[in-house]
Amino acid sequence: MLTINDLKLYDVLLSGPMYFYFSTFITHPFLKFFAQFVGVTTILYNGHNMLLKKGVFKKSLITSLLVESSESAQKTNFHRLYNLLLMYPLLFYSNYTTESPIKYIIYMMIIGGFIVNYYNFHYKNTILCFLSEYGLTAPDTQCIIE
Fold first, then answer.
1. H, E, C per residue of the chain
2. Which of 1, 3, 68, 75 has the fewest CB atoms within 10 Å, measured from its CB?
3. pTM listed for this prediction
């Protein structure tokens, strides 16, 4: 069975380097920088969270906008919204306008990431939980978080 740490290892060893490699084919300067940024931050963020889950770090080194607690490696809904509304659309557009030998692999990575982030944002945590993170609901709002 696939675990969260297996997915993080996949992101560290494959997704991040693939996004960075993909950026070498992009000609638009901003989109090229963005794909490089996504590649590097994917490696750093998921590597950090993998080590946090394994107990190498006792406390998260990342701010609260990106992880739910200092002991957690779970994304916040704010981070999921960034992925859904900014990162994946920009990567999709970059891939659509760029010829590269890994074009279809990038499409599969974007679609897979979008599905996972959408599922976790909408079904697992619900929009109500997103609002409760920022104090916009009743204090006793219950959220489903593993």
1. CCCHHHHHHHHHHHHHHHHHHHHCCCCCHHHHHHHHHHHHHHHHHHHHHHHHHHCCCCCCCCCCCCECCCCCCCECHHHHHHHHHHHHHHHHHHHHCCCCCCHHHHHHHHHHHHHHHHHHHHHHCHHHHHHHHCCCCCCCCCCCCC
2. 1
3. 0.77
